[in-house]
Amino acid sequence: MTSTAASEGREQPSLRDFFASRFVQAILLSGLFLQIGIWVRNFAILFYVTDLTGNDPNAVSLISVAEFLPIFLFSFIGGTFADRWRPKRTMVWCDLLSAVSVLLVLLTLLFGTWKAVFFATLVSSILSQFSQPSGMRLFKQHVHESQLQLGMSVYQTMMAVFMILGPSLGTLVYYNLGIDWAMGIMCGCFVLSAVTLMFLPPDRAEDRREQTHIAREMALGFKYVLSRRLLTMLGVNFAVAGLAIGLIMPMSIFLVTEHLGLDKSHLQWFTGINGAAMIVGGGLAMAFSKKASPQSMLAAGMAVSVVAIAAIGTTSSVAVALVAQFISGLVMPAIQIAINTLILQNTEDAFVGRVNGILNPLFMGAMVLTMSVAGLLKDAFSLSAIYLVSSGLFVLGVLVMLPMLRVKK
């Protein structure tokens, strides 16, 4: 019996109990520090690379590849080890090692080559493949099943707030303090996150269970996913969505500068309005989650994304592009909350890391594939054509979702 299943026999906790939880407080504070560091990193490195390369689309695409390729290569390995190791200790060490890697990059920037900035993104992305599934395991252990969707919504709302504040913060740090200070702030944020995670409840006894051979545990993970129809179909949907998102993710700065004729600093407003929409969408998703299944929320969110992405890529009006961006952000929480809820509700605690490690590479691998050729496609085709192809792939994703609507937990 999993810890979550065992908790079903106890009285369901209140909203006050949820926010008074030592685990919830620590994990949210850790997330706060990580969000500050990540957004400073993302925008500082983006502007730094574009300044040095003259807006080279291939260099911009390389930033995204450095961030997402490790998710494809290390997600399953990280998820498997996350199921073996003690989750709290794993998360603390991952944040500390990330801080050390950023410090090394900072020293390289001071005395070596600017290309070291890619290494900072690469290392922190690799370590997150061990930390993230460990966090999911702790979430399933310490949060009552009736409040899993609430927890997902709260965390997504915090991320949405930083989609408003983060771009401005990253832009402010880079243009006023420079890349060296940006890397220093990122290092400090990882250290603060690690210190905060030390206040999590101790790892449970079952997290020290006897372990079998790593190859056998990997094989059991694949068998587990294939034996559950909903998880299998979710994996197919992940791959299709990854292809679609990978096409347009590196193109956002070119959408702003070339398609709409704005300065690159205006990118923060598009990201900001997307974050504002996600805050509103998070509240709507929480309200509709009581009446709609996670499967239907996911299908509806992807269907709306079809129209929004097509509009963003084809309009030459800044106002229309902003409205479409808002609509796209409005449904994003429903998609993310539905995915995380489906995984946690349909996965036993002992397999959470491996299920994440199998599904995420399907999404990220497909996304990295199209990211890798995005720069070449940008040279060969118009931005509108790229966005329309992405929209068409989302249509395929919705079609894949339809059989899932009839699958129950």
UniProtKB/TrEMBL annotation:
Q: Where in the cell is it found?
A: Cell membrane
Location of the Major facilitator superfamily (MFS) profile domain:
23-409
| Keywords (A to Z) from UniProt | Cell membrane, Membrane, Transmembrane, Transmembrane helix, Transport
UniProt cross-references to CDD domains, sorted A to Z: MFS_MefA_like (cd06173)
Q: Which residues cross the membrane?
A: 26-47, 59-78, 154-175, 230-255, 267-288, 300-320, 326-345, 357-377, 383-405
Would I find Lipoprotein among this entry's keywords?
Answer: no
The answer to whether UniProt assigns keyword Transport to this entry is yes
Q: Which InterPro entries match?
A: MFS (IPR011701), MFS_dom (IPR020846), MFS_trans_sf (IPR036259)
| Membrane topology (UniProt) | Multi-pass membrane protein
| Signal peptide boundaries | none
What superkingdom heads the lineage?
Answer: Bacteria
Put simply, this protein is called MFS transporter
Supply the source organism for this entry: Gordoniibacillus kamchatkensis
What does the record give as the organism's lineage? Answer: Bacteria, Bacillati, Bacillota, Bacilli, Bacillales
